[in-house]
Amino acid sequence: MTLLVILLAVLGLVVLINWGKVNAFLAFLLVTLPVGFALGLPPDRLLAAVYQGLGDTLGSVVVIIVLGAMLGKLVADSGAAQQITAVMIRAFGTNNIQWTLMAAGFVIGIPLFYNVGFLLMVPLIFSVVYKYKLPAVYVGLPMLASLSVMHGFLPPHPAPTVLVAQFHANMGLTFIYGLLVAVPAIILAGPLYARTLKGIVSRPLAGFVAEDLPESALPGRVNSFVSSLLPVLLLLGAAGLRLALPAGSAWGPALAFISEPTIILLLSVVVATYTLGLARGKTMGNIMDAYGSAVKDIAMILLIIGGAGALKQVLVASGASTEIAAGLQGTGLPPLLLGWLIAAVIRVSLGSATIAGLTAAGMMLPTMAQSHADPNLMVLAIGAGSLLLSHFNDGGFWLFKEYFNLSVKDTLRSWTAMETIVSVVGLAGVLLLNWALPLVAPGLAHH
Q1: Predicted confidence (pLDDT) per residue in 237-247, tens digit
Q2: Domain of 444, in residue numbers
Q3: For an engineered disulfide with 415, which of 1, 287, 400, 430 has Cβ 3.0 to 4.6 Å away?
């Protein structure tokens, strides 16, 4: 019954958004309320779940998205993105721009949450697209594949980090194994798969792409790179200092505060306001107008993400995720495959990779106690499952669709297919490692 309700909810979203041309935020509300009643939630709990889903989802991302949009707008308007693009193209050539952006996403994706990395790099992707007349999805998908894999597979991102602790895995080994699994997944889902998507017509939001400026009007190369990538530099610096400090240091809480993505982006916006704005002759009024324009461009995106959060919370409040996972536990599948499958089903049902990973971990803990599965590989198997088949109930789906200005069909063909490739290749990599580790490194197996 639960699976049927969820299937009908997804079908309802497809009908309303794709065929009925209903605004996605309204479609989420129109689908969420009947789903809640169908799953047995009384009216008061249903509305409470809707409000909680909206509040929790937006509360965790709204400041990051707004600040990221402001920084991205200034990076684009000031010419910094144009300068960075020119340097990268001269260094690697237009023929290798996919691989260049993929590598950048890989590095940036280690310390940055997906939403932060997405918003930081969108102006750079769009500048390449407009200046060199390249297909937007073809250029952008490899970088986003990198960011997504880093978020789903590897610590220090939220779900993998919690999973490492719950399964008593080794953080270092999980990270090393994760890199071995992540690289082929990113290459297959990014540059190689994106070659089949050159025909997708995409007109990215022009508000995040400034007109080409003459080279003499561009900010300097160092200023452009440092101001644009300051969030990454600050995060890496703070993380390095925290590692260097002895346990229990009085500086620990301060560094933890500074390392928060919201604080990092706020500091970055303040610095860029001066280095890319005031110091280059812009008035504060002009800069604030640009920031206001950036927020207007993302207002509907925020509402859509909130709508997806409302549907997710109704499914959680009704016990749907627990019921689905419990039903899968009786299948007798190998533990690593079972962990991937539970995370995958919850991901498809709820949309949230983090929720899917954490819920699957709770379901797999009793199984882990009775099996000899490698805990490091279980973290990766669940991480891979949590990325499968991103669709209408995932905020990342709507970020990609709205920023790249795609149809639902083309978003499914590009974004959803990319996430699915990453998930399946990730599972294959985990199973291959599980087979190979006892042969090539018996001392590390099940460490």
Answers
A1: 776 777 777 77
A2: 136-201+320-447
A3: 400
